[in-house]
Amino acid sequence: MRKLFTMNTHDLIRELREPAKTKIVMLVADGLGGLPMAPGGLTELETARTPNLDALAREGTVGLSVPVLPGITPGSGPGHLGLFGYDPLEYRIGRGILEALGINFAVGSKDVAIRGNFCTLGADGKITDRRAGRPTNEKNRAAVEKLRTIKIPGVELFVEPVKEHRFVLVIRGDGLGDRVNDTDPQAVGVTPLKAEGADAASAKTADVVNRFLAEAVKVLASEAPINGATLRGFATYPKIATFENVYGLKSAALAVYPMYKGLARLVGMDILDAGQTLQSQMDKLAAVWGDYDFFFLHYKYTDSTGEDGNFPAKVEMIEKLDAAVPDITKLKPDVLIVTGDHSTPSKMKSHSWHPVPTLIHADNCRPDEVIGFSERACLHGGLGQFQAQHLMLLAMAHAGRLGKYGA
User: Fold this and answer.
1) Do 103 and 137 form a contact (C-beta atoms < 8 A)?
2) pLDDT of 237 strictly over 90
3) Which of 142, 234, 277, 314 could cross-link to 180 by cystine, CB 3.0-4.6 Å?
4) What pTM was estimated for this model as a whole?
5) Cα–chain-centroid distance for residue 343?
């Protein structure tokens, strides 16, 4: 019997990719998609004044991307991996690894990396603020110094500051697993969850975690509102093909938040120091324009305002992003993509499963009748509704970097 040859998408790209001098920019507005606050109302994107994004939509093609599967609410890790063309169901990357890589922590084979959140606990041990009032980075570092005094026999503990309420905990030792539940209940008015392991190795990790968190409450007792901690995204280092290996693109990441630097580092992008503001990101983009083929720009604040439930603030952040678009278009990228890794409606104060507005601007886009960039407009766009993991195929095609498949 003749054996059938099967090929995955990455193998197909490697076979079809062609050299070119074209440049691709992917601008990711984190949590871009939204919802009306009341039936019949407008979303944040529909409310915002976005003349530059609307112009791109008129000249390009738009649609709605599904980050994972219909009805599945993604975290930022799966959302971005899909945008980079990696199947988020195949590559399940724990958030702890992304946070650790984002601060350039060298994760080893015996390590379990975990994202930590400082929180505020009431006298009854229940969470009153999941983010401890979003402390300054200076207060974060001071609290981390307290956590570094904790010792657990049999393992090494590394605690590193990240930003505001976030830190990284890395547990190093023999026989550790990462199949451990989050201790963050993602709600206030309840106590943090107990860590439990799904197998023997993970149970060992869970035991270390529970002892660490009990000690954390003691050493942080006088640090209110930073008087507790929760842990999320337990992860060991995964095996994953690099972006350049798959696409043949020399790529650069311009991001402010460490986690998104971690995502880019995970797939082998160069992590550039792009400062702390949108303008500094744009300045860096112009400065390195001649050095790379692909540029990943990440904009966080459409997500954080949505998680805060602050509709007007999210509208303002969208408008600030729109004002920066000319800094990109003046560089004349061959392909400009604007999208999000997921939706974060202010109404829900959380990530959601809703498809994400997406546009592609290139001189070979097939025109559609859309004249603005919004959720409703994208419903009628030429891209239709598609899996986010296919976006890089479209980017490569529009950039003239994919040859013909078959005879």
Assistant:
1) no
2) no
3) 234
4) 0.81
5) 12
* In-domain check, residue 105: yes
Q: What is the CATH number of the domain that holds 349?
A: 3.40.720.10
Domain boundary (198, 215, 235) is at 235
Output DSSP code: residue 330.
T
Residue 295: inside a domain: yes
Strands 335-339 and 24-29: parallel
Q: Where are the alpha helices (DSSP H) in 269-358?
A: 278-287, 301-307, 311-329
DSSP characters over 80-105: HHHHTT--TTT----HHHHHHHHTT-
- The answer to whether residue 149 sits within a structural domain is yes
* CA 355 – CA 342 distance, rounded (Å): 7
Residue 281 lies in a domain: yes
Q: Comparing C-alpha atoms, which of 55, 81, 49, 51 is closest to residue 68?
A: 81
Q: Are residues 310 and 384 in the same domain?
A: yes
Distance between CA atoms of 112 and 116, rounded to whole angstroms? 13
Cα gap 405→407, rounded to integer Å: 7
Domain span at 133: 97-235
Q: What is the pLDDT of residue 287?
A: 98
**Residue 118 shares a structural domain with residue 222:** yes
Q: Is 19 exposed, middle or buried (0-12, 13-18, 19+ CB in 10 A)?
A: exposed
Residue 3 predicted with pLDDT over 70? no
Where would I find the H helices in 166-239?
200-219
Q: How is 19-82 classified by DSSP, letter by letter?
A: -----EEEEEETTBB---SSTT---HHHHS--HHHHHHHHHSEEEEEESSSTTPPP-HHHHHHH
How many domains would you assign to the chain?
Answer: 2
